[in-house]
Amino acid sequence: MFRSRFCYVNGLVGQKTSFRTRSSGILRPPHTSQGPAGATRATGSSEDALFSHISGRVRLAATVLGTALALAGPVSLAQAALLDNEPLAAFTANARTNTAAPAAWAAGTRAYLVITAPGDTTAVRNAVAANGGSVFSSFDAIGVIVAHSTSASFAATMRGVAGVQKVGATRTSDVPADAYNPALPANPTQAAAPTTEPVRSDMTQIKADQAWAVNQGSATVKVGILDTGVDDQHQDLAPNFDAADSVSCAYGKPDTRVGAWRDVDQHGTHVAGTVAAAKNGKGAIGVAPGVKIASVRLAEPSSTLFYAENTICGLVWAGDHGFKVTNNSYYTDPWQFNCPNDLDQAAILEGVGRAQAYADGKGSSRSRRPATPTSTWPTRPPTRRARTTRRR
Fold it and tell me: Concatenated DSSP letters for 196-216?
């Protein structure tokens, strides 16, 4: 969903934009209502078998993937075009993520995106350290560095460093101390397996049940669930879960520890079930029960917010790990709208846009238009700007 407002800068009108990711499916899951003992019941469906443990606080319903999309070949739901100011060559190689240990957490630590040319970011990373910051992670293939600093002048100082294109704060509050030693999400208790597997009404409405008779989806297709995490031990998800390609990107750095990808809010588990709950005689059936799903947790614990560095980390991960489809059901926090003439928000637009273009280039076979000179941004926004999003 596209939203726009206008902001006035030096007498000029500029478009202030927010893009709400929406996959290209044709049906949303049923509305939910609170059931007995806090369980969530899907109105008019038998969804309870898979989602009996899901909170009634489903803030943004996961969009059901179109049957043909999930069952067929390489497609990316990121749907981002190459940005006008970025050369195609910048997005061809795998993104090397530098994750050198940053300085210890301190009160007042804020996160910043430092944008530079794709490739070797050593000089700019050294400049971060020389100007009161530390490198938390960096994504060299797209020229994005996630920096932390307690200095109020860090962004302004870095904007004057040679080779730095944009710098922007990604938060309006401190980075949690948990970022430096993240706790693993709780290991959820599993309910007894149901003994039936009714076909839900949403599946019959999109004729998924007819598609299953032809093709239930290929195990060679990996669907990335970029969300709050996924309960990989659920009896309807475990058969299709790909742990090797799952990760937590909370705080903007890949965490591949076993279980780091697990759900901190239960929304991602709901989405995963809609996409690929196994057709195994119990519980529910997803749109494409034969595909593989991988969890890329973007949400941070406690707040369950999705900051720009988390989104960037997740999209780069999706590209490097060969996801043919990604489901994105969130807004990138903290602002509802991002305006390219705001210095902080311009860096978010650029960083997330590059990550989406990178993922798209890795996961989709569709052609892209040639790049145009850097000078066209932001005075002439690209015709298909990458989407930055914020959940409500």
Answer: --PPPHHHHHTTHHHHHTT--
